[in-house]
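Sharing a chain and its predicted structure for anyone who wants a worked example. Both blocks are below, sequence first, tokens second.
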Amino acid sequence: MDDTGGDQLYRIHEAAGGGQAIELRYRPTVVDMAEALRLRNRTPAGRRQRRPWFLLGLLGPVLAAALIWQDGGPEPVSAGLLALVVFSWVFVFSGHRIMARAHRGVLDAAGDCRAVVDGDGVAVTGSGTSTHHRWTALAHYAETPAHFAVFSADRQALTVMVLPKRGLADPADADRIRAILDRNLNRI
């Protein structure tokens, strides 16, 4: 990755944005990914993917109690079902952290990243990888005090791009990114 902005992906964005590209430089962390995945739970796709775990957490204890009552005592099936219920509640409330930790190797391999946000879309370049998403491929974004998170329009995919505000050269650039995101995506 060239620190002078000389790589091809950056030049494409610089030209498309008419020089209005906003750049972030950061090293992604597990905390960044966990926050983005937590925010993803607010999207329609995120809610749809969590729904079975939530229902299992609600209905599983009822089914386990019925099995225990019917058999007169705890059976292996009932104990296994109760363990699955506990796991489902852990996943509902902490799944974003678990999944973020599972991506630790990918995050470490990404190394130092550069993201460019402009009128054309979002491009992220890391060690040996680069991705470019036009606004038409994205649907939602969310903001926290420390992050912007951008989500794909695909109803089944887990496409999440986290843009940590610590990567901005100037804190005022957060307002510029927010304006671009508001023009192109739905805020959740």
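Comments welcome. The CA atoms of residues 139 and 153 lie 4 Å apart.
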